[in-house]
What we know:
Blueprint: E1 5-7, E2 10-12, E3 19-24, E4 29-35, H1 39-55, H2 63-79, H3 81-92, H4 96-121, E5 126-128, E6 137-139, E7 146-150, H5 156-170, E8 173-177, H6 184-196, E9 203-205, H7 210-219, E10 225-230, H8 232-244, E11 248-253
Parallel strand pairs: 7-8, 7-10, 8-9, 10-11
Antiparallel strand pairs: 1-2, 3-4, 5-6
Helix pairs in contact: 1-7, 2-4, 2-5, 2-6, 3-4, 4-5
Amino acid sequence: MKTQLYINGEFTAPLKGEYFAAINPADESEFAQVASAESADVDRAVKAARAAFDQGIWSDKTGAERALILRKIATGIRDNLQHLANLEMVDNGKPLPEAEWDINDAAVCFDYYANLAEKSDQQPVATVDVEDDRFDSRIWMEPVGVVAAITPWNFPMLMAVWKVAPALAAGCCVVLKPSELCSITCVELARIIHAAGVPAGVFNLLTGFGPDAGAPLSEHPLIDKIAFTGSVATGKSVMQAAATGIRSVSLELGGK
């Protein structure tokens, strides 16, 4: 098995043609070769997401239109649940029943945010009384733009979905960089998202190592928001990268 990157609606080889081994922790055997992205691949993916967002091919859809596609993704996950759980077990090493639960929860997550996307159509612009007739104050919700999602190894597909599903529901475009330790089910997620009809550029997948792919993604000037789950040390670097462009960042840090 040899994976590819997913950029601008197409599965593509990394520009430098480099791959790394996916290892089954049960017996330390190699079971796949994973595409290794670097800065030029990151640039391709981010520019594709930027163009898709600026053209409004996803953000201009109604919440109901986005919800329809999100539910197709949920169905695609459920239709492939056993296959995905088996891959998660081999790639991550967790027991199969737990992997099955995680994959099912990923489908539930897409359904949940599909419902919220629909409800967003029903929420009018809110007005705020500032107790001064000279001012008219209003609140409305809008997508933040291009989101970089960097996720860890312990819940490979589920953690990715926790970031990807709400971003897509809100109308954002996403570049996902999963952990190099467990990337395989995120590659399958890209296949399911592609089959569901998400427009080209709206979702992009970069597999690879932190210094080669994660760091350039965090630092890219066309990223509007960074969502990172991982170690405190890497989280500090992500926050520093976000600060240079004064970009929004959310961090879930910790570990054992």
